[in-house]
Each structure stands twice: as structure tokens, then as C-alpha cells.
């Protein structure tokens, strides 16, 4: 099922990436008091309900859109779902590529988390056997347009750089999908890290 979902989302993502920058953060709007915004298993109003957003929910990361652009793919608990874009409003007008949004990257084997607190230039790496802070070159960060990427050089306790790019990404431990891939490279070490990224957190 995960392989099928990944294929589906890859097609949706490819179709919509040029028209609008995803992933992006949204908030719930136009939901009546006492009501909720349903999250469905498929991008249609008759599909099974797999979760709900409160009418005041903010910080919802939409990974991509359905082919008709009426439904947004979102993460829920250990999986994914679809919610109507009619009831979502973008929280920001900038792109994740602008170096103005906090990015949280993560991976497994071993489990690790690398948080880039943009637009400040502080970053924090946490793994089971170590944790440390580094500084980035924010807000002056290099990137590419085609395909869209963002590079975050860092120095301090460790030196290296992270490359973040559009791509449907799985953490390998759940049915969750992410809209950004990451590669972490340490100066002086041949072995880096590969993982997924999300906005904020």
C-alpha cells in the first residue's frame, strides 16, 4: 500500500510543483463553530474519514495537491490523508527555498534530527549518542531553481552542509510521506546521512 501511495503522490507532486511551491503551511478557515475539517483516505468527499483538524488548527503542512487541485495531501499520526483545500488558507507567501522557514530533517538507523532555525543561523543536531549546535550561513543560502534545492552550510561543533530538495520521502518506519528530502554531509567523513524534512517544528 505504501508503494502505491508513494507512486500516486509522486505523480501528483510532479504535476503541481511547477504551479505552486510545496510543501507549504496552511491554516483551517471557514469551518463553522462546533464543526471540524475532515481528513479522508482518498481525495474525494465520500472516502473514509481517517482524521480531523480543529476549526482553529494552524501549521498544517500540505505536501501536494490532487490532480484537480481541490484536495491537499497531509500527514496524520503514522500515515497520510487528504483534506479539502476549500477550507485551507496559506499561512505564508514565501517558499521553503527562501531560507526564511524553520526546517526539521530526520532519519533512521540511527535515529537523528537536524533542526535548522531559519531565518536565524542556528541549527541543532540530536542523535541517541550525541547532540550539538552549529551555525549556518542564513539568510544567505545557496540553492538551485531547476530542480528546486536549498543548501545549508554549517560550522561550529561540526562542519559540513545539508542539501534539501523537493521529493516524496518516506521515513521508512511508517506510512507517513514528506515533501522534502535531505542529505547531510560532514566535513572529513565519507559517510553522510539521508532523510526527510518537514516545515517548522
Overall strand count? 16
Number of helices: 1
- Backbone structural class: mainly beta
Report the sheet-strand fraction. over 45%
Instruction: Describe the main β-sheet briefly.
Output: 8 strands, antiparallel, barrel
| Residue share in helix | under 10%
Which strand order does the major sheet show?
Answer: 8-9-10-11-13-14-15-16
Summary?
8% of the residues lie in helices and 49% in strands. The protein contains one helix and 16 strands. The strands form three sheets. An eight-stranded antiparallel beta barrel has the order 8-9-10-11-13-14-15-16.
What does this structure look like?
With 201 residues, the protein is mostly beta strands. The chain has one helix and 16 strands. It is elongated and about 55 Å long.
Write the layout of secondary structure elements.
Blueprint: H1 2-17, E1 24-28, E2 36-40, E3 49-54, E4 60-65, E5 71-76, E6 79-84, E7 88-90, E8 103-107, E9 112-117, E10 122-127, E11 130-136, E12 143-144, E13 149-156, E14 160-170, E15 177-186, E16 193-199
Antiparallel strand pairs: 1-4, 1-7, 2-3, 4-5, 5-6, 8-9, 8-16, 9-10, 10-11, 11-13, 12-13, 13-14, 14-15, 15-16
Give me some keywords for this one:
mainly beta; five-stranded antiparallel sheet
Amino acid at each position: 500500500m505504501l508503494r502505491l501511495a508513494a507512486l500516486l503522490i509522486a505523480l501528483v507532486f510532479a504535476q503541481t510543483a511547477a504551479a505552486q511551491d510545496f510543501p507549504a503551511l496552511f491554516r483551517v478557515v471557514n469551518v463553522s463553530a462546533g464543526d471540524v475539517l475532515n481528513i479522508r483516505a482518498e481525495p474525494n468527499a465520500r472516502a473514509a474519514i481517517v482524521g480531523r483538524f480543529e476549526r482553529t488548527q494552524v501549521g498544517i503542512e500540505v505536501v501536494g495537491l490532487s490532480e484537480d487541485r481541490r484536495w491537499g495531501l497531509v500527514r496524520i499520526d503514522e500515515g497520510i490523508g487528504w483534506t479539502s483545500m476549500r477550507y485551507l488558507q496559506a499561512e505564508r507567501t514565501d517558499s521553503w527555498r527562501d531560507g526564511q522557514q524553520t526546517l526539521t530533517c530526520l532519519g533512521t538507523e540511527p535515529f537523528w534530527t537536524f533542526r535548522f532555525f531559519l531565518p536565524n543561523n542556528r541549527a541543532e543536531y540530536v542523535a541517541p549518542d550525541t547532540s550539538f549546535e552549529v551555525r549556518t550561513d542564513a539568510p544567505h543560502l545557496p540553492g538551485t531553481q531547476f530542480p528546486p534545492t536549498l543548501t545549508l552550510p554549517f560550522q561550529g561543533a561540526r562542519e559540513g552542509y545539508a542539501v534539501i530538495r523537493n521529493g516524496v520521502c518516506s521515513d521508512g518506519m511508517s506510512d507517513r510521506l514528506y515533501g522534502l528530502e535531505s542529505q547531510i554531509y560532514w566535513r572529513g567523513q565519507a559517510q553522510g546521512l539521508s532523510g526527510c524534512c518537514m516545515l517548522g517544528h
